[in-house]
Amino acid sequence: MYYNAFLAGLAALAFYSVADIVLKVSSSRSGGIQTSFIASVSGTALLIILSLFYTTTLNFRSILLSVVTGIFMGSGTMMVLRSLETEQVSDTMAFVAISYAIPVIFGVVFLKEHVGPVEWAGIVLIFAGSAAVSLKDMKLNTFLLPAIVGNVVWGLQFITFSMAIQSAGFVPVAALSSAVSIIPIAAYLLLTEGFKFRASAQAAFAGVLLALGLLGALVVLESGATALGMSIIAAEPALVTLLGFIIFKERINGMQVLGVVMATIGIVVVTA
């Protein structure tokens, strides 16, 4: 059994979901791009500190892949938070399952990971539950398009992460990628808002949570159980919907409740 992958997946699910809630608060107050920048800086600072405890050096291949990954990471984050400025957190984050479906497919098709029938049933339940939480009176408007594109970019980020950590420790790779992710966000901020910096404790805290969630996801990628571990993290839309209902009193319907239940059962099946 891949207990490390399961535990890391559950930890990443928790960190990412709470971060989404905190990001919603910061984005509505300071704007998505400002929030993206501050979160990226705080997350990068934590990862750089942690990387100091690693003796692994990055070779040219891992550096190149880390740079590409950082571009994907920064661009995806910026687009998703742009949607969070105006849309409900449950609506925006309903599409995050897209970013996890890509590495799951990658794990099964390209990495040839074995997934048994029972585990497949759990994976299907998780993704079906995540899809169900988006089936309400939500209208697919242009404000949600950045979130969709951003999640596709996030999915590609996990593929390049998987390739980069094959020849280097995942913490240094995460630190470099996170540092690079600041560049596109800062450039966009400078061009559109003149880099009018507004400090946000919520954004900084969210960045720390996102960094911890990323480390959990990278443990999954390194474990050899990408499909199973990333499927657990794919329950994020369901958990975020539940947290949005509890914290922001966002409306949820019967289909969304069913989605939360399905995703929960799926996690139990996968990890059993």
Overview of this structure, please?
The structure is a single chain. This protein is an all-alpha fold and 272 residues long. The protein has one domain. The chain is 78% helix and 0% strand. It has twelve helices and no strands. It has helices at residues 3-30, 32-51, 60-84, 89-92, 97-109, 117-132, 145-164, 170-193, 201-223, 226-233, 236-248, 254-271. The longest helix has 28 residues, at 3-30. It is globular and about 50 Å long. It starts with a helix and ends with a helix. The model has no long low-confidence stretch (mean pLDDT 85).
Break the fold down into its secondary structure elements and pairings.
Blueprint: H1 3-30, H2 32-51, H3 60-84, H4 89-92, H5 97-109, H6 117-132, H7 145-164, H8 170-193, H9 201-223, H10 226-233, H11 236-248, H12 254-271
